[in-house]
Specification:
Elements (H helix, E strand, L loop, with lengths): L4 E3 H8 L3 H9 L5 E4 L2 E5 H9 L16 H4 E3 H8 L3 H11 L3 E3 L7 E4 H9 L17 H5 L2
Protein name: Helix-turn-helix domain-containing protein
């Protein structure tokens, strides 16, 4: 039988957080918790889903954060690289064409572009094309760049 929950302290240790930061994160209600015998437990499945969809917190040992988030989004520098344009031009396109986007939380405040919206726009216009050789581009550096 596999473990389905962990203590708040275990969750905090996995992220390198102190007790106060751990409880602060729990009280933001980003993932599911339950009270068991009067003690708060973090549901592992919910925690892992949250972890895969955020970029700020990094596990001390383990996978990089944001794996799910970066499957459906891209950074502005990546968009610029794909199209062979400057980042400033990419930002202009984003704001003018209203691409669906998300801002990452906390200090990094990175703008991430919805890939589906980007590729739909790309197919429905003729001026911009993906730079030759980058058709199947997936920059793993995107993850560290977005943090």
């Amino acid at each position: 039988m596999s473990k389905t929950s962990m203590s708040v302290m275990e969750m905090g240790r996995s992220l390198g957080l102190c007790k106060t930061e751990s409880y602060w994160l729990v009280h933001k209600e980003q993932f599911e918790t339950r009270l068991v015998a009067g003690k708060m437990r973090v549901m592992i499945e919910s925690f892992e889903k949250w972890y895969a969809n955020q970029l700020h917190y990094k596990k001390v040992n383990g996978e990089m954060p944001g794996t799910e988030l970066l499957k459906r989004t891209m950074t502005v520098p990546t968009m610029a690289s794909l199209l062979g344009i400057r980042e400033a031009t990419a930002y202009e396109l984003i704001h003018r064409l209203h691409f669906r986007s998300v801002k990452t939380e906390y200090s990094s405040q990175r703008l991430l572009i919805d890939k589906a919206t980007f590729y739909e726009w790309l197919e429905n216009q003729t001026h911009y094309k993906i730079v030759e050789g980058k058709e199947n581009f997936y920059d793993r550096e995107e993850l560290s760049e977005a943090q």
